[in-house]
Every structure is written in C-alpha cells, then in structure tokens.
Amino acid sequence: MEQKKIHKVFIDGPINPGFIGEAIAKHSDKKNIGAHSIFLGQVRNDRIGENEVAAIEYTAYREMAEELFIEIREDAFKNFPIICMHIYHSLGRVNAGEISLFVFTSAIHRKDAIDACEAIVERIKKEVPVWGKEIFTNENSQWKINT
Predict the structure, then answer these.
(1) pLDDT, tens digit (0-9, with 9 covering 90-100), for 5-53
(2) 2 in any annotated domain
(3) What is the 3-state secondary structure (H, E, C) of 87-108?
(4) Residue 78 is part of a domain; what is its CATH number?
(5) pLDDT, tens digit (0-9, with 9 covering 90-100), for 115-135
(6) Total domains, the chain
(7) Taking Cα atoms as reference points, which of 147, 70, 72 lies closest to residue 117?
(8) Range of the domain at 23
(9) What CA–CA distance (Å, rounded) separates 33 from 53?
(10) Cβ neighbours of 108 (radius 10 Å)
(11) pTM of the full predicted structure?
C-alpha cells in the first residue's frame, strides 16, 4: 500500500460546494477507482419547542480530535479495501442549509466505498470530540445532543 497523505481535517466555517466539487474532480485521473461514496452532513433548521435553529457553532478539542481522525483513517484503510478517503469537518458557525461534514471514500467496488464511508461517519459521531451549539433565530442557544 502506498504512503497515504494526511490532509487537514478542520475547515473554518461551512464546507462550500465548490470545495466538494474540486475534491471529487481531483480523483478523475485515478483510473483504478470504480466507486466513490460521499456523506455530506448539512445543518437542519430543526424546531425545538418555540425555537428554530438558524446555525450550529462547532467547537472541538482539536488535539484529541486530530489524533482520532488519524486513527479512524488508519483503521479504515486496514478494515476496508479502499483506495482513497478524506474527512473534512467545520469549526465555527455553519448556517442551516450549509455543509458541516464531508466524508469521501473511493474504492474499486461500490460496496467497499459505501461500507467504509458509513463506518467512518459512525465513528466520527461517536468518538471525536466535536461539539455543536445550536443557535436559534432569536439568538438563544443550547448544546446539540447527537442522536
């Protein structure tokens, strides 16, 4: 297996569609890839009681999170026959409708790409110390509870 390059995971603010498109386009020269699986986490404008979510403000225990992202990446390459993978997560304010998490896996076959992508997203949600504070339209806020 070739040496995998570690990419910067955290992005300030939302992950814009142009960035996502460029990430996908960069793989067109890798002719051994037969499938990509992409997960995009988008901020919802949930209603909580009388409040509507306008945005989520993401914070993280960066040092620990970055170590866990490396571990998740290494485990994905050990446990799934993937060729490539990328994880990007927002920090700071992300408005409803904007993307806060982008996970991208590539493999020879679709099932491998899909299974790896799903496993990576589940581990991120369960293990990585990233927190979101829901900011309501009235500017009140509360810490988000992942479900």
Answers:
(1) 556 899 999 999 999 999 999 999 899 999 999 999 999 999 988 999 9
(2) no
(3) EEEEEEEEECCCEEEEEEEEEC
(4) 3.90.1170.40
(5) 999 999 999 999 999 999 999
(6) 1
(7) 72
(8) 10-143
(9) 39
(10) 13
(11) 0.91
